[in-house]
Amino acid sequence: MIKGAFPAFQKFGFFGFIFSTEWNPTEGREAYGAMPFIAGTVITSLLALVICFPLAFSTSLFIAEYYRKTKIANILSTLVDLLAGVPSIVYGLWGFYTLRPLIAQLGYPGQGYGIFTSGLILAIMIIPYATSISNEIISMVPNELKEAAYSLGATRMEVIFSVILPNARSGLVAGYILALGRALGETMAVTMLIGNANIIPTGLFSPGNSMASVIANQFGEADGLKLSSLIAIGLLLFAVTAIINAIGKIIIRKFA
Amino acid sequence: MEREAIIDGKDYTNWRELKNKLFFGTVVVLSCITISPILLIVYKLLAKGLKQINFDFFFKVAPDTLQAMTAVQNGEVIPGGIANGITGTLLLVTVASLIAIPVSILIGIFLYENQGKKYANLVRSLTDILQGVPSVVLGLIAYIWIVKGITHGFSALAGSVALAIMMLPLIIRSTEETMKMIPISIKEAGAALGVPYHKIILKVMIPSGFSGLMTGILLSISRVLGETAPLMLTTLGSTTINLNIMKPTSAVPLQIWEFYNNPNMIDLVWSSSLFLMAFVLTLNIIAKRISLRYS
After folding, report:
1. Residue B253 needs a FRET pair 20 to 30 A away by CA distance; which of A62, B1, B29, B103 works?
2. Domain B83-294 class, CATH top level
């Protein structure tokens, strides 16, 4: 991969490539920079994480604390597991035909394409990963600690915030970091919803492009320098996800 | 029993109870929101896709644009189906499994047999990294290795290699976990009878961990079945049934992408998505059943 990406780095310089905001395939004035896509990837993924957090956290509280080991928790966790089994392209379709018109109806510009819609669909896609890790971590909190808090007259909510959360904090953080790693590399659903504009997104509802989606979108007509630039973007994406996953794994190992 | 919580002369009992109830309510509501997408997706697929599922759907290749357009204009069901995609997906997954399963089971057993050794730890870390690599990047790698290097053109082989790389870490991890669960006494009994090492692995370890291995394999297959992005970069797609691994091949997810880009085929999008999802979920459920039965 490094070999394939070499021409692009050679032409524009390593940092020049990363920080350049220009993406111009016109012959003779070709210029490729990765910044718009890096920005798009980071913003959509972080947005996904922000949306995912309250949902996944409450679901895992529901499954691992409030209704622990009951039938309803079982059903819920099966449904969440199913969410993980839905192919990325089906999410994209559903987002395109259900979510996008909904957001367009709310009166935002750009027919509902853009950063927000992709972040929303990414959030749904990473919920199962975040939830299943949180479930395990939350159910690992020792019962004695919780009982001690109850015996002092704490309400359930107080137990959650003053016993479970501090005990599970690093595990939860690691779980969300791993979920973030998933979101960074998602391709199809984002490609179908982000609007495919090669610019740095200007707002929450602005169209953009992510690293994975630009590869999927432009690969078909790419050759020469453009192909090399796309491979370079792939290399960057690989590096970013590998680092994020390594951080998550290290935190989990420390916790375990 | 009345609980007292009087601080600075103010009674906080009710306030705390109320907060507690409100929080519980929020948790329940948010949990319901979390699971609503899966129900909505399944409902949408069933509502839109069911009418296209018929005999032809499984046994005919995709129609061309003109056929689809006329059918839509006449308000009929679009003729043809996704036979080229189904055969393509089966071909891709078969080749990918042939590549991935033996290699990853061997690596998994290697990791199990060498717990705590330096080289094994390195391999394990690399497996972890591989698991986090986005599928589109794997598609790029397969493009550079196979499309550029071996087949000099888009090919099913390249797609299979990309899928195989995706399957590797999943099967390696599940193999290692399964092997850890097998009681060591079984292995020792074999060794006590003088069975050579390779036969212990083939005749003792693999059969006794078979259900675990099977679960891992099925789950990894269900993971790669729905992959679209790496296939776009490697197998490209094809309008006819192709079983030659050196030629471009279609696949169900690729066909969904093609239908999605063609406004005349909109009905086929839903039915092929329904088919793909039913396929993936069935495999998933079978895998979970196997692991439940034997654990």
Report:
1. B103
2. mainly alpha
